[in-house]
Amino acid sequence: MRKEPRAMNVAPHIEAAEIDDAALDTISGGVAAATTAGLHLQVAHLEVCADAGAFVSAEGVALGANAHVGVN
């Protein structure tokens, strides 16, 4: 009688853990303040999109902006 070899289980093993917001703030530094704004304008075949954001945390300040103009 021939015995077939077993297939290897190559699936990654992942453990999940719960963490509350207070503990997460001490790990990531938390966010002290944040603001965002956006604009989307479409007239006939012209489309304009823009957004901006600012985030303040214990690590510093991060600013971002994005703009897109397209013709449909």
Overview features:
72 residues; mainly beta; three-stranded antiparallel β-sheet; 1 helix; 3 strands
Textual characterization of the structure:
There is one protein chain. With 72 residues, the chain is mostly beta strands. Helix content is 11%, strand content 51%. The chain has one helix and three strands. It has one helix spanning 21-28; strands spanning 31-43, 46-57, 60-71. Strands 1-2-3 form a three-stranded antiparallel β-sheet, with no helix packed on it. A hairpin with a 2-residue loop joins strand 1 and strand 2 (46-57). It starts with 20 loop residues before the first helix and ends with a strand.
Instruction: Tell me the helix content.
Output: 10-25%
Low-pLDDT runs: none
The whole-number mean of residue pLDDT values reads 82
Span between N and C termini? 69 Å
The total of helices stands at 1
Task: Name the shape in a single word.
Answer: flat
Structural class: mainly beta
Q: What would you call the quaternary organization?
A: single chain
Radius of gyration: 24 Å
Number of strands: 3
Main β-sheet, in a few words?
3 strands, antiparallel
How much of the sequence lies in strands comes to over 45%
| Order of adjacent strands in the largest pleated sheet | 1-2-3
Element order, helices and strands? HEEE
